[in-house]
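R.M. (postdoc): so does anyone remember the format we settled on? I'll just put the structure tokens first.
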């Protein structure tokens, strides 16, 4: 006699998977760097910051304030060109319960890879996932978070330009290493800085922007700011980030 109640609880606490033709204000792919320059402590802080941002009251209010009142979110991890994985496919987030459920899935997922850094391969997978989703999204955004340049796979600008031609916006969140070791210096601190490199090579599309953080402790706060801007369609306000 208890099974119906248990099943009802499971349905309520599991983020609803997107369906073809479903309308959302935003289809967002969160793309996270798990290359070898990100250690396990930093990885956990990165993922926890994303979970906290998605479940914050400010982000939920932004979602509820949209014309449709819901968004679709997917979460991807990447390292080298053959190390890209969609950890969580598109799920609908429309309230605190669905955001909490998505965050729980995110927290419980194991790390996917350690390897080089192919932002281009990550963008390509995100583009394909958006195309296959069948969502009716007012805006489509790929949100790339990383601590270094593209050092494997095809040219990053080619991947970016292909995405932009399909009407997709690419935003970024750069994690700045203020004390890089010698062998990673060119990768994490390119001439002009990583944030400027993202502006020139990764960011694209309508309202594309990049923010930067200098430590993983403030990652969640920066992610929340970025999510609110993306959900509200005000990303251009943070362009100078």
């Amino acid at each position: 006699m208890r099974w119906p109640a248990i099943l009802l609880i499971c349905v309520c606490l599991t983020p609803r998977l997107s369906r073809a033709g479903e309308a959302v204000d935003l289809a967002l792919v969160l793309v996270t760097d798990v290359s070898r320059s990100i250690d396990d402590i930093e990885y956990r802080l990165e993922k926890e910051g994303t979970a906290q941002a998605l479940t914050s009251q400010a982000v939920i209010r932004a979602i509820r304030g949209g014309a449709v009142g819901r968004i679709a979110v997917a979460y991807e991890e990447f390292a080298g060109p053959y190390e890209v994985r969609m950890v969580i496919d598109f799920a609908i987030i429309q309230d605190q319960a669905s955001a909490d459920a998505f965050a729980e899935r995110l927290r419980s997922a194991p790390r996917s890879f350690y390897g080089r850094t192919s932002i281009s391969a990550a963008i390509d997978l995100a583009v394909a996932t958006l195309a296959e989703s069948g969502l009716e999204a007012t805006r489509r955004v790929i949100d790339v978070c990383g601590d270094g340049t593209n050092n494997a796979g095809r040219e990053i600008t080619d991947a970016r330009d292909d995405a932009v031609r399909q009407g997709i916006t690419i935003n970024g969140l750069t994690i700045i290493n203020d004390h890089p070791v010698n062998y990673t210096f060119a990768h994490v601190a390119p001439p002009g800085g990583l944030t400027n490199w993202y502006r020139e090579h990764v960011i694209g599309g309508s309202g594309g922007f990049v923010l930067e953080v200098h430590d993983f402790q403030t990652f969640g706060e920066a992610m929340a700011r970025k999510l609110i801007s993306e959900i509200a369609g005000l990303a251009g306000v943070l362009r100078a980030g």
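R.M.: ...and that's the designed sequence above, right after the tokens. Also worth knowing: Residues 1-14, 235-241 have pLDDT under 50 and may be disordered. The first helix runs from residue 3 to 13.
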